[in-house]
């Protein structure tokens, strides 16, 4: 399939890229012509994922714990050295912890915030420092932060997770306005998937059972699919297509916005 946007000559860093939406994003960026640095807390899996991308530009996999601040300058430096620059950051890495609000613990909320919000802050800070005029890359770029439809609308059993994804949405808006006003040439947008057919997405079904909204997995699937006007789960590649668009020059007038990929669930 021919890519609908060209990323020839661009360099991208994708976190949580060994599987799921992260790998789909890395693969789609690669197919569109970008060189890609895939990072993941599972280093060997990141290396294997990168090795599967062949026939195009450079693809490299490295280990990264996105919650470790010291690791961010290292992976940005790797992108600069191995890919020749940094034009695109996809802050995809995140964790899901469900549960009813009355059952969530403070420790769960703190862990969600550490991985889902603090990593986005550190990633934007490290990438923008390189992308801005006078930085080591210095040619502007596009930052795409993966949020969730739960960061826009309320969903039972998602309050702690949704709160962190709502923070990603607003953090993206503030960064977009600031970077534009400062003349950095860096766009920032957030992408909000609904329930996607990935291992993380499957956890949502189990969570509905755990909080008592469904008796079993089949019942949970019936409830969730009933909330989606298109009547199906989303595909990782459908999220990746949105990411490619936001990474490309075709979206040059889009910044500070949320782009929803949810089969109509948040509109119903």
Q: Your description of this structure?
A:
There is one protein chain. The chain has helices spanning 20-31, 43-51, 71-83, 106-131, 159-181, 199-210, 217-226, 236-247, and strands at residues 11-14, 35-40, 59-63, 88-91, 141-146, 186-193, 258-261. By secondary structure, the chain is an alpha/beta fold. It has a 7-stranded parallel sheet, sandwiched between helices. The two termini are 32 Å apart.
Give a brief rundown of this model:
The protein has 268 residues and is an alpha/beta fold.
Number of domains: 2
- Percent range for β-strand residues: 5-15%
CATH architecture heading of the largest domain: 3-Layer(aba) Sandwich
Please bin the fraction of helical residues. Answer: 40-55%
Described by the principal axes of the CA atoms, the overall outline is: globular
The chain-level mean pLDDT equals 96
- The rounded distance between the terminal residues' Cα atoms is 32 Å
Number of helices: 8
Which strand order does the major sheet show?
3-2-1-4-5-6-7
The CATH H-level homologous superfamily of the largest domain: NAD(P)-binding Rossmann-like Domain
The CATH class of the largest domain is Alpha Beta
The helix/strand class is alpha/beta
């Amino acid at each position: 399939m021919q890519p609908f946007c060209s990323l020839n000559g661009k360099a991208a860093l994708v976190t949580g890229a060994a599987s799921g939406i992260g790998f789909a994003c890395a693969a789609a960026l690669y197919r569109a012509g970008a060189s890609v640095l895939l990072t993941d807390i599972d280093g060997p899996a990141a290396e294997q994922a990168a090795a599967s991308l062949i026939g195009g530009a450079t693809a490299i996999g490295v280990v990264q714990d996105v919650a470790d601040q010291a690791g961010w300058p290292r992976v940005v430096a790797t992108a600069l050295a191995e890919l020749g620059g940094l034009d695109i950051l996809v802050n995809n890495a995140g964790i899901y912890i469900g549960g009813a609000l009355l059952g969530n613990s403070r420790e769960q909320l703190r862990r969600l915030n550490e991985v889902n919000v603090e990593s986005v802050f550190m990633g934007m800070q490290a990438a923008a420092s390189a992308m801005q005029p006078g930085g080591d890359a210095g040619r502007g770029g596009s930052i795409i932060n993966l949020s969730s439809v739960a960061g826009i609308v309320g969903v039972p059993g998602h309050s702690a997770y949704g709160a962190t994804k709502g923070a990603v949405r607003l953090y993206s808006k503030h960064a977009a306005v600031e970077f534009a006003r400062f003349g950095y040439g860096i766009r920032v947008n957030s992408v909000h998937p609904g329930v996607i057919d990935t291992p993380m997405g499957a956890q949502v079904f189990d969570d509905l059972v755990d909080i008592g909204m469904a008796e079993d997995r089949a019942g949970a699937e019936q409830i969730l699919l009933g909330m989606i006007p298109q009547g199906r789960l989303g595909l990782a590649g459908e999220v990746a297509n949105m990411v490619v668009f936001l990474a490309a020059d075709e979206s040059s007038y889009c910044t500070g916005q949320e782009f929803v990929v949810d089969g109509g669930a948040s509109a119903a």
